[in-house]
Amino acid sequence: MSINWFKYSSPQTFYPLAGKMIPWFALLATAFAIAGLYISFAIAPTDFQQGEAYRIIFVHVPAAWMSMVIYIVMAGWAALGLALNARLSAMMAQALAPTGAIFTFLALVTGSLWGKPMWGAWWVWDARLTSELILLFLYLGFIALQASIDDPRRADRAGALLALVGVVNVPIIYFSVKWWNTLHQGSSINMGAAPKMAATMLLGMLLMALAFWMYTVAVALMRVRCIMLERERSSDWVKELSLGVKS
Amino acid sequence: MLIAQGLACLRGDRLLFKNVEIELNAGGLMYVLGENGSGKSSLLRMLCGLLMPEQGSIFWDKKKIKENAENYLSNLTYIGHLNGLKDDLTALENLYMSARSAGNEVTENKALAALTAIGIERCANLPARVLSQGQKRRVALARLWLTEGKLWILDEPFAALDIASVSVLAARLGEHLANGGMAILTTHQDVAINAQSTQTLRLSS
Amino acid sequence: MLIAQGLACLRGDRLLFKNVEIELNAGGLMYVLGENGSGKSSLLRMLCGLLMPEQGSIFWDKKKIKENAENYLSNLTYIGHLNGLKDDLTALENLYMSARSAGNEVTENKALAALTAIGIERCANLPARVLSQGQKRRVALARLWLTEGKLWILDEPFAALDIASVSVLAARLGEHLANGGMAILTTHQDVAINAQSTQTLRLSS
Amino acid sequence: MQWASWSAFFYMGGYAFYVWFSFGLTALCVIWEVLSLRKRSIEALRLSKILAQG
Amino acid sequence: MNGAWMTVLRRDLLLAFRRRSDVATTLFFFLIVSSLFPLGIGPEPAVLSSIAPGVLWVAALLAGMLSLTRLFAADFADGSLEQMLLTPQSLTLLVTAKVLAHWLVCGLPVVLLAPLIGLQYALPNDALLVLIISLLLGTPALSLIGAIGAALTLGVRGSGLLMALLVLPLYIPVLIFGAGAVAASQHGMSANAHLSLLAACSLLSLVLAPLATAAALRISVE
Amino acid sequence: MNGAWMTVLRRDLLLAFRRRSDVATTLFFFLIVSSLFPLGIGPEPAVLSSIAPGVLWVAALLAGMLSLTRLFAADFADGSLEQMLLTPQSLTLLVTAKVLAHWLVCGLPVVLLAPLIGLQYALPNDALLVLIISLLLGTPALSLIGAIGAALTLGVRGSGLLMALLVLPLYIPVLIFGAGAVAASQHGMSANAHLSLLAACSLLSLVLAPLATAAALRISVE
Ligand code: HEM
Ligand SMILES: Nc1ncnc2c1ncn2[C@@H]1O[C@H](COP(=O)(O)OP(=O)(O)OP(=O)(O)O)[C@@H](O)[C@H]1O
Ligand SMILES: Nc1ncnc2c1ncn2[C@@H]1O[C@H](COP(=O)(O)OP(=O)(O)OP(=O)(O)O)[C@@H](O)[C@H]1O
Ligand SMILES: [Mg+2]
Ligand SMILES: [Mg+2]
Question: Is the ipTM of this complex over 0.85?
Answer without folding.
Answer: no
